[in-house]
Design brief:
single chain; mainly beta
Amino acid sequence: MTNKLFIYGTLMRGEERDGLVAHLTAHPATVRGNLWRAPAGYPALQMNPNGLDIAGELLVLEQQSILMVLDLYEGVAEGLYTREVIDVSVKGQTESAWAYTMSSLQLRRAGCAPLKATDWRSISPKR
């Protein structure tokens, strides 16, 4: 399995939950998909090969055990998000990384609305 994690929302540098992963090395990265916003104000990523280039950060995981903590934070056991391995673009190269994503069903259940933005930081409530 991969030792990398793609983040695109509240975990990115300068965002409200960045303290959970601030100790990890981060590199600018993109994935193909669509951003959504839940009524509670957090983002969701739906993977879509025909989607937009969604900006984020690729983290290098020092220990896989951090995924257990992040799974709790992201509500994986409750079905809010799914953690899956995706293709991430970093400096023109494709790498595999974990990401927390939502399916169409998960987006509907969470009441998410589509966003035109491709970078959460451009619309983040923290900005």
